[in-house]
């Protein structure tokens, strides 16, 4: 749990072993370099389970992970004098990742979650193993982990092995300044002693779903903000396209009582409140349009269903946070048992669900943007919102960029969890591909951020072109934030930097913060 000293200038510290870590814990450690500390109760639990493993190590009967090989080689009994080499060889051989480096925040989340499982006392490792992981996190030392190497079953094997390699003093890492270094050179500078792994410890360090779970938690955190942003972009688009907010009425939404839909519609009502632009065409005698296009009218149904999917994914993530994933595990009554809890299917499925809704929310956003640019559908705005149409192209190609991203998001929505490639001589004959699902979801979330940023930028320009009529107070606040970094309507200019500035406004939560400064917290 998160703890802060009485001096509010002190850094946040996450205590491990007093219960499941929370979403806030994971984000604090992964993104904000919060310190971690192992609780006394965790040390006691780990010591107790270690005693069980040591008892089995002396047994003449083979025990998986303690005195045997691994995977398809589990039938071989390993003599006591070779078991240190067994653990060392396991980590070295499994640290076989390839491809681009994985982001620091993902590796830190992965390490925290593995540390959390170690602290449950169900893995049989010594407390020194957990202490060394904590020391790496606190020193800001991040093992180099690669994109490819996990099938999402038997744990995120290669990613976790690269982290385990670091506590052995081997491999490479990045220091707190982002410099890539040899681990053996960096650890002494921070007073960290490499550890020699003994029976079962190598296996316990790699048999977890921590990578895919960490990415799921970070994705849920990002999507919560982005779905509020989607409502914000929707409200500005409905306003700017002279749409109606009547369809967002609470009594209409209650006829279909999905909780996310209700939240989204409530956000839209508040964001569009007190809009002179909206009031300018409220009189039915003056406005002959009786229905808006689906991308405007049905936004609560789409953005709301996405929220409900995120809620389901959070339920799965919370169950995983309360789990101890290892194989074999030390049970509460002192047995050491093999199991299948390392299979990533529960996480893989929801990661794929989230990629689907991410693509769909982005698709609807792009359709609203396109309406602004089409003179036949924008209700009086100039073609492409151009200053001098024909001489200027306005936001024509910004929509192309959106369309390219949305097309990519549709490809990323293809489920990874529907695939399986057998491995380990058919011992591991069904895998989840959850790590792959998580990696593509991260790319999808980046794409959604960019699509929403372009919609906000376009809607802001459309609203400003409605002058002298003003948009709602919430829309004005968002436009003001955007205009700190971008220009308003006018002749064509280099547009890419303005898009990137808008992406930062969305990604950093400044668009949502600006709107909430007017209407209060949004759901």
From TrEMBL:
InterPro entries: Aromatic_Lyase, Fumarase/histidase_N, HutH, L-Aspartase-like, Phe/His_NH3-lyase_AS
Gene Ontology molecular function: histidine ammonia-lyase activity
BP GO terms, sorted: L-histidine catabolic process to glutamate and formamide; L-histidine catabolic process to glutamate and formate
Catalytic activity: L-histidine = trans-urocanate + NH4(+)
EC number(s) recorded for this UniProt protein: 4.3.1.3
Keywords: Histidine metabolism, Lyase
Pfam family, one: Lyase_aromatic
PROSITE patterns: PAL_HISTIDASE
GO terms under cellular component: cytoplasm
Annotated localization: Cytoplasm
Pathway noted in the entry: Amino-acid degradation; L-histidine degradation into L-glutamate; N-formimidoyl-L-glutamate from L-histidine: step 1/3
Keyword Lyase part of the UniProt annotation: yes
PANTHER family according to UniProt: HISTIDINE AMMONIA-LYASE (PTHR10362)
Family of this protein: Belongs to the PAL/histidase family.
Protein name: Histidine ammonia-lyase
Organism encoding this protein: Microlunatus elymi
């Amino acid at each position: 749990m998160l703890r802060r000293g009485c001096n509010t200038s002190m850094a946040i510290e996450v205590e491990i072993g007093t219960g499941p870590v929370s979403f806030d814990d994971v984000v604090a450690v992964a993104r904000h370099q919060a310190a971690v500390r192992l609780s006394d109760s965790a040390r006691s639990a780990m010591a107790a389970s270690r005693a069980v493993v040591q008892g089995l190590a002396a047994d003449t009967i083979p025990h998986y992970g303690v005195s045997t090989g691994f995977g398809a080689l589990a039938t071989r009994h390993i003599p006591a004098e070779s078991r240190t080499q067994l653990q060392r060889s396991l980590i070295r051989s499994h640290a076989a990742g390839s491809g681009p480096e994985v982001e620091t925040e993902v590796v830190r989340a992965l390490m925290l979650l593995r540390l959390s499982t170690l602290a449950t006392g169900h893995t049989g490792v010594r407390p020194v193993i957990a202490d060394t992981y904590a020391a790496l996190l606190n020193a800001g030392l991040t093992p180099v982990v690669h994109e490819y190497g996990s099938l999402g079953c038997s744990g995120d094997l290669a990613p976790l092995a690269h982290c385990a390699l670091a506590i052995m003093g081997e491999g490479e890492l990045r220091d707190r300044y982002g410099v890539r270094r040899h681990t053996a050179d960096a650890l002494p500078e921070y007073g960290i002693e490499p550890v020699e792994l003994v029976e079962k410890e190598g296996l316990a360090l790699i048999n977890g779903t921590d990578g895919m779970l960490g990415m799921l938690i970070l994705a849920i955190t990002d999507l919560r903000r982005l779905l509020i942003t989607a409502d914000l972009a929707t409200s500005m688009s409905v306003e700017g396209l002279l749409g109606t907010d009547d369809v967002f009425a609470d009594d209409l939404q209650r006829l279909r009582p999905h909780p996310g839909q209700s939240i989204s519609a409530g956000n839209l009502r508040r964001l569009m409140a007190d809009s002179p632009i909206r009031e300018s065409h409220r009189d039915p005698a003056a406005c002959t349009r009786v229905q808006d296009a689906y991308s405007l009218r049905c936004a609560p149904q789409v953005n709301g269903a996405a929220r409900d999917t995120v809620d389901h994914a959070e339920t799965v993530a919370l169950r995983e946070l309360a789990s101890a994933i290892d194989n074999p595990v030390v049970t509460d009554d002192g047995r050491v048992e093999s199991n299948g809890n390392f299979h990533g299917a529960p996480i893989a499925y929801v990661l794929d669900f989230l990629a689907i809704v991410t693509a769909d929310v982005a698709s609807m956003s792009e359709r609203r943007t396109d309406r602004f640019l089409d003179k036949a559908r924008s209700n009086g705005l100039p073609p492409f919102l151009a200053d001098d149409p024909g001489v200027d192209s306005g936001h024509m190609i910004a929509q192309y960029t959106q369309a390219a991203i949305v097309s990519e998001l549709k490809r990323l929505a293809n489920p990874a969890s529907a695939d399986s490639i057998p491995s380990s001589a058919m011992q591991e004959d069904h895998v989840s591909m959850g790590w792959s699902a998580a990696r593509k979801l991260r790319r999808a979330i980046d794409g959604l951020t960019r699509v929403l940023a372009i919609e906000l930028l376009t809607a802001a320009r459309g609203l400003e072109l409605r002058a002298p009529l003003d948009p709602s107070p919430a829309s004005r606040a968002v436009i003001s934030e955007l205009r700190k970094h971008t220009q308003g309507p006018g002749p064509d200019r280099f547009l890419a930097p303005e898009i990137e500035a808008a992406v930062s406004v969305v990604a950093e939560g400044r668009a949502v913060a600006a709107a909430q400064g007017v209407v209060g917290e949004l759901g």
